Amino acid sequence: MTAAPKISFVSLGCPKALVDSERIITRLRAEGYDLSRTHQGADLVLVNTCGFLDSAKAESLAAIGDALKDNGRVIVTGCMGAEPEQIRAVHPSVLAISGPQQYESVLAAVHEAVPPQHKPFLDLVPPQGIKLTPRHYAYLKISEGCNNRCTFCIIPKLRGDLVSRPLGEVMVEAEKLVAAGVKEIMVISQDTSAYGVDVKYAESRWRDRNWRTKFLDLAQALGELGVWVRMQYVYPYPHVDEVIPLMAAGKILPYIDIPFQHAHPDVLRRMKRPAHQEKTAERIRRWRDMCPDLTIRSTFITGFPGETEEEFQFLLDWLDEVGLDRVGCFKYEPVAGATSNDLPDHVAPEVMDRRWHRFMKKQAEISAKRLKRKVGTRQQVMVDELGTTVVKARSKGDAPEIDGAVYIHTKRKLQLGEFVTVKIDRATEYDLHASL
Ligand code: SF4
């Protein structure tokens, strides 16, 4: 028997791109391809690119360059593949280019470059597919594309309008993940609360009953699986209020990731953000009344075109007022093709820089204050990384990769993915330290 063809895979970009990579790898493994840890010695390199920001494009082009240097046979897919001429201009020798979710084209290109060997007894893959995340947590992609047209974003151009997967199909995938040992499911999409709008919330079957393809039904169904369920990329549409009681009841995690991007109504209007309204602070207060343990995560942009000092100060005051738990902040980047580039009064880089530092300083104070409230409490955490005297874990309020961590000081042997209850001893700006 000859050795299976080997593919070296590079996955760049956001969790949505990661899920695309997992799908492609699952298919490749099912067809008998092996994965290679290095470009050297592989039969082919597949690069799943990100094209969201210019800095991500530069990273994608560099990764393609490395693959060409180390191997020479390279196929490119993913968001940047939607603009093949940009890739060809720098790397004319790539074998094939396809855009995001063009699974069939990317597989066809792989077949042409390195034909598969059919080995029915070796081609088995685990039923949950191949996951690139650690075994105890996984991303669950519920839809693709986006119906919004935020002026700074080109994702709808790259990925098209919203296409939701039927709830029954999503739940079968979720069940397989749980059966394979996954303890935490992170729900992702471009706009999670818009789930099902494109199919008019059509019903589908799961566990002998009909469910609407809708955010609330999805949260209820996932809540039946008995694992941690974390909702990401939620916009504050009115029906989000209905999901908060499920968080309070412990069905899904009391955690919500809402990319607000700004607080000033005029900036939000220029951004064309979905579901923005002036009463957000009041709603957040109501959510916290319903679910006091709720962790709210968000991201913001400073220096959006036309942002005045007054608008920026409004954002800082708003942050003070609502006290979000976890916050990321980006400086505005004029992504090629984004309509916001045509807006007047772009903010000077040094002003943007100063505002970014002021924002981060403010948020560090807020975050430290909010985390301090947890000192002395007992929290259930999940073990993410082992160590001899310090174990890295996460509480219900921490998403992997993006949020802080809970460091458990212990010599006890713990397992990856194990749930333990710890006592929080102290807090820093972003992390907690605990003992068993
Ligand atoms: S909601 Fe806005 S920022 Fe998010 S993907 Fe859609 S258009 Fe882009």
UniProtKB/TrEMBL annotation:
Domain MTTase N-terminal: from-to ranges: 5-115
Compartments in which it is found: Cytoplasm
GO MF entry, a single one: 4 iron, 4 sulfur cluster binding
One matching Pfam family: UPF0004
Cofactor comment text: Binds 2 [4Fe-4S] clusters. One cluster is coordinated with 3 cysteines and an exchangeable S-adenosyl-L-methionine.
The protein's name in its UniProt record: Ribosomal protein uS12 methylthiotransferase RimO
Sections of the chain in a coiled coil: none
GO terms of biological process kind: tRNA modification
Domain (TRAM) ranges: 372-436
EC number(s) given by UniProt: 2.8.4.4
Residues that bind [4Fe-4S] cluster 2: C146, C150, C153
Alphabetical list of Gene3D superfamilies matching this protein: Methylthiotransferase, N-terminal domain (3.40.50.12160), Nucleic acid-binding proteins (2.40.50.140), tm_1862 like domain (3.80.30.20)
HAMAP family: MTTase_RimO
Family matches, as InterPro entries: Elp3/MiaA/NifB-like_rSAM, Methylthiotransferase, Methylthiotransferase_CS, Methylthiotransferase_N, Methylthiotransferase_N_sf, NA-bd_OB-fold, Ribosomal_uS12_MeSTrfase_RimO, rSAM
Domain Radical SAM core: from-to ranges: 132-369
A cellular component annotation (GO) from this entry: cytosol
Keywords: 4Fe-4S, Cytoplasm, Iron, Iron-sulfur, Metal-binding, Ribonucleoprotein, Ribosomal protein, S-adenosyl-L-methionine, Transferase
Family recorded in the similarity comment: Belongs to the methylthiotransferase family. RimO subfamily.
Required cofactor(s): [4Fe-4S] cluster
Catalytic activity, as annotated: L-aspartate(89)-[ribosomal protein uS12]-hydrogen + (sulfur carrier)-SH + AH2 + 2 S-adenosyl-L-methionine = 3-methylsulfanyl-L-aspartate(89)-[ribosomal protein uS12]-hydrogen + (sulfur carrier)-H + 5'-deoxyadenosine + L-methionine + A + S-adenosyl-L-homocysteine + 2 H(+)
Binding, [4Fe-4S] cluster 1: C14, C50, C79
Stated role: Catalyzes the methylthiolation of an aspartic acid residue of ribosomal protein uS12.
